[in-house]
Write a structure and sequence with these properties.
Layout lengths: L4 H5 L7 H15 L8 H17 L2 H10 L11 E3 L2 E3 L5 E3 L2 H10 L12 H14 L9 E7 L1 H6 L1 E7 L2 E7 L8 E4 L9 E7 L5 E4 L2 E9 H6 L1 E6 L5 E6 L8 E4 L9 E8 L6 H13 L12
Parallel strand pairs: 4-8, 10-14
Antiparallel strand pairs: 1-2, 2-3, 5-6, 7-8, 9-10, 11-12, 13-14
Helix pairs in contact: 2-3
Length: about 300
Amino acid sequence: MPRDPYEVLGVQKNASEAEIKKAYRKLARQFHPDRNPGDKKAETQFKEVQEAYDILGDAAKKGQYDQFGFAAPFGGGGASPGGGGFRFGGGQEMNVDPDQLNEILRQMGGGGGFGGTGGGFENIFGQQRGRSRTRRQRPPEEVESEVTIPFLTAALGGTVSLSIDGQQVEVRVPAGFEDGKKLRLTGQGPGGGNLLLKLHVDGHPYFRREGNNVILDVPITVAEAVLGTKVDAVTLDETRLTVKVPPGTSSGARLRLRGKGIKGGDQFIEIKVQAAAPADEHSRTLMEEFARLNPKDPRADLPWA
């Protein structure tokens, strides 16, 4: 059984670091093989001095020894059961009662104790070293991409199939998705990483969007604007509705279709009055007569008039 390192160096347990180092240097010079050629006893004592200082000269090892004695996991040679004893760092071997060792290992946080897989001895000296050798794999990086989706898909929601970096991806777009916003697809990027999509919304032949409202331009003639009329309009889901245009409707006026927009928004029919030049003199005379009978100056209230 190895000697107490404090005894080997001839210092007290409360000795300072400087005192320990001074005692070591003195004994190392005294028993050095160069000063004692062929002296086996001096050689043994020199090794003892080295092993003692290896423990007491290291603050971490000294603290472990002060708490657990030679059962402390100094490292180096590792622990190996054999012949009823255990061999620790520095080649030292000691006999330890199994119950005592179990208690020591439980206090060190090893858990289950000696014997069997998953016991305290294995947890401390096996698994702990295994973790130090295991290299953590970095998670796949998030990949960003930009794609363009149809207007109606963004408005009503739906699934689009996209080819991103040669990979086919099915993207579920929620209703009301706005142009320029981003959508994160978990685990669908290269190597199982995340895919961050910036979606651009394509234009539409006749709808345009204002927030969750949808605008549809509907042209009418001057006579329809004056007399009033009924026009057909289409909604986002391709339903056709008949909308009444009241007499005297001006170009730019909007007629509301409640709840027919995006996610509960409204659809507006925006009137566009299209005027035609008189086809003949008689038509001109009729328009002049109408203007005389229905005088109106649309520019009278302008702030700059």
